[in-house]
């Protein structure tokens, strides 16, 4: 029976001796045999080797005890990557809204049906990758053991999309956008109580600053009269918007939990499979009349293709920002989508930009930067529910666990399997 050897990280020195062993100040303890990581670590369920666990502990210790200043994370590549990904996601959201507007102008309003192609494409892309990595029997085991969890995630995602779109049908855009703030509140509350996330003062300040920037956007829209106007049924639309924002918030937290424990291709494949089923049934029930009344021509087909591609890119990149950042940062990053939407509106739909828009955009970006002030070099990538050394998480792209493995290799502290484990960056 294998024995898992760990190294106490405390304040011990991890300088390696010439013979390859670690310094005497580091003490070793024996623990129970390594468990098979059915819900975490290796995507194929293989055992985490003692040397890999040791390397993660060493690398994590190095990263967390390194001398940092309040702006240290802002100087890392990770910070700029996560900011850039957030803006790409905002542009994707803007693109989907633009194509939806084109579809509505072409008398084609099929909210459930048009999203069906996104889930279908996700399944076609990521299901073969998942089966390739896990094998067909391994994939069936995942279906048996975790399929119901993926079903819940897909249901939350599909219904969040549906009710948010439905809200815009009954209420005005200004009211619907105000309700989107509720998704941020949901994420913070759920993360705090269920995932044991503890937000720092700068993180709370960053969220408030971003919401202030969004408030300026809404105020500008109200002043110019471009975002208000009459509505068919304000109460009904606001209730749909509130429900959609709640479902969005819950699904974002759930997805962050999933992608920190499992490979991204597995999560997206099941999101696609169950999304097709749920969305297909919903479209068959609620979109039949709109489908018959819709205009079908080459332009509409092009809008559907553009909408689907933008949404697939969005879904493919979202797990990375959820790993490197968090569900809260993910939601506040998307606030800039309103600004990009105005830029598109100016050049495509002839909108006139108000002077508050650039101020609001800068304010939101400042809020995103503030969110990461006075944090560690790991930012939000270290998840509290994965353990001190992230032992319950996958060593995938963007995770704190992979960063720790890479740091251990750079410092020459990882040998054998521990060093090699970080080289195949599991996604």
UniProtKB/TrEMBL annotation:
Composition bias, kind Low complexity: at what positions?
25-34
Give the UniProt entry's GO cellular component terms: membrane
Q: Name one GO molecular function term.
A: transmembrane transporter activity
Q: Does the keyword Transport apply?
A: yes
Subcellular locations according to the entry: Membrane
Q: Could you tell me the superkingdom of the organism this chain comes from?
A: Eukaryota
Per UniProt, the keywords (alphabetical) are:
Membrane, Transmembrane, Transmembrane helix, Transport
Q: Cite the residue spans of the region called Disordered.
A: 25-45
UniProt xrefs under Pfam families = SLC35F
Indicate how the chain sits in the lipid bilayer: Multi-pass membrane protein
> What InterPro entries does the record point to?
EmrE-like, SLC35_F1/F2/F6, SLC35F_Transporter
Q: Transmembrane ranges?
A: 70-96, 116-136, 174-194, 201-219, 239-255, 267-286, 298-322, 329-349, 355-374
Family note: Belongs to the SLC35F solute transporter family.
This chain belongs to the protein called Solute carrier family 35 member F1
Q: What is the lineage of its organism?
A: Eukaryota, Fungi, Dikarya, Ascomycota, Pezizomycotina
């Amino acid at each position: 029976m294998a024995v898992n050897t760990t190294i106490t990280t405390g304040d011990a020195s991890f300088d390696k001796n010439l013979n390859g062993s670690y310094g005497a100040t580091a003490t070793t303890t024996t623990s129970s045999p390594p468990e098979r990581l059915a819900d975490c670590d290796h995507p194929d369920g293989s055992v985490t080797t003692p040397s890999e666990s040791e390397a993660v502990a060493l690398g994590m210790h190095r990263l967390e005890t390194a001398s940092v200043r309040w702006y240290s994370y802002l100087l890392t590549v990770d910070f700029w990557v996560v900011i850039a990904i957030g803006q790409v996601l905002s542009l994707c959201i803007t693109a989907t809204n633009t194509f939806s507007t084109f579809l509505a102008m072409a008398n084609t309003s099929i909210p459930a049906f048009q999203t069906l192609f996104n889930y279908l494409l996700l399944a076609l892309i990521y299901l073969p990758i998942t089966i390739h990595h896990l094998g067909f029997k391994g994939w069936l085991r995942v279906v048996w053991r975790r399929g119901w969890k993926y079903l819940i995630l897909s249901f939350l995602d599909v219904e969040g999309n549906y009710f948010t779109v439905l809200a815009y049908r009954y209420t005005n855009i200004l009211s619907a956008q105000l309700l989107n703030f509720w998704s941020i509140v949901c994420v913070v509350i759920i993360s705090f109580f269920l995932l044991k996330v503890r937000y720092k003062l700068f993180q709370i300040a960053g969220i408030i600053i971003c919401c202030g920037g969004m408030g300026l956007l809404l105020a500008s829209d109200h002043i110019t009269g471009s975002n208000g106007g009459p509505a068919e049924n304000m109460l009904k639309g606001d209730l749909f918007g509130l429900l959609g924002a709640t479902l969005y918030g819950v699904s974002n937290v759930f997805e962050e939990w999933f992608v920190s424990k499992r490979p991204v291709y597995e999560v997206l494949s099941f999101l696609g499979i169950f999304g097709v089923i749920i969305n297909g049934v919903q479209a068959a029930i609620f979109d039949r009349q709109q489908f018959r009344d819709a205009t079908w021509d080459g332009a509409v087909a092009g809008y559907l293709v553009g909408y689907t591609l933008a949404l697939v890119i969005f879904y493919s990149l979202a797990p990375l920002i959820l790993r490197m950042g968090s569900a809260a940062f993910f939601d506040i990053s998307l606030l800039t989508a309103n600004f990009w939407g105005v830029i598109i509106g100016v050049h495509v739909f002839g909108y006139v930009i108000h002077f508050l828009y650039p101020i609001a955009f800068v304010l939101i970006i400042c809020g995103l930067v503030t969110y990461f002030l006075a944090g560690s070099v790991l930012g939000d990538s270290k998840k509290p529910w994965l353990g001190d050394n992230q032992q319950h998480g996958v060593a995938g792209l963007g995770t704190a666990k992979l960063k720790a493995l890479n740091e251990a290799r750079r410092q020459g502290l990882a040998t054998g399997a521990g060093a090699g484990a970080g080289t195949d960056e599991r996604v």
